[in-house]
Automatic annotation (TrEMBL):
Residues spanning the signal sequence: 1-22
Keywords tagged on the record: Signal
Pfam families, per the entry: Pollen_Ole_e_1
Organism of provenance: Ensete ventricosum
Name by which UniProt lists this protein: Pollen Ole e 1 allergen and extensin family protein
Listed PANTHER family: OS02G0317800 PROTEIN (PTHR38400)
Amino acid sequence: MMTGGVVLAVALALLLCGASEAWTGEIRGRVVCDVCGDSSVGPEDLVLQGHFFLSGAEVAVLCITKSGEVLNYQAFTNSKGIYKVAETMPESDRWVSCLARPVSSFHERCTRRGDAHSGIKFSYNRPSGHSHTVKPFLYKPASTPFYCS
């Protein structure tokens, strides 16, 4: 029969061994309104009724794992224009490379894609528990305000 201390030590060893195999990754980014459509973010972009950060914009993230599996994620931005995708998986199946791309903006005035890139591809080499930040995706209004000229 095992003593309480031995049972606790065995349980702790099993828990720690299992935890070392898990891996957690996170991808985050932002979607903003480039009011002047100049592919840069500046103070003039805050004029659109404070809607610089686009809430509710949709972003797709596609990742390939070490085992070759393709994982597709869908995310929506919060009130600060931030989206996040996270997953915990076995270390042997962790993400190797990913592609993040904007899908749509539901803002009433800022709905046109503002940058030329259809997506951003990147290698994912972060350790477990660390995130990768993608550069902001830009949308612009259908017509440029007069003060941008």
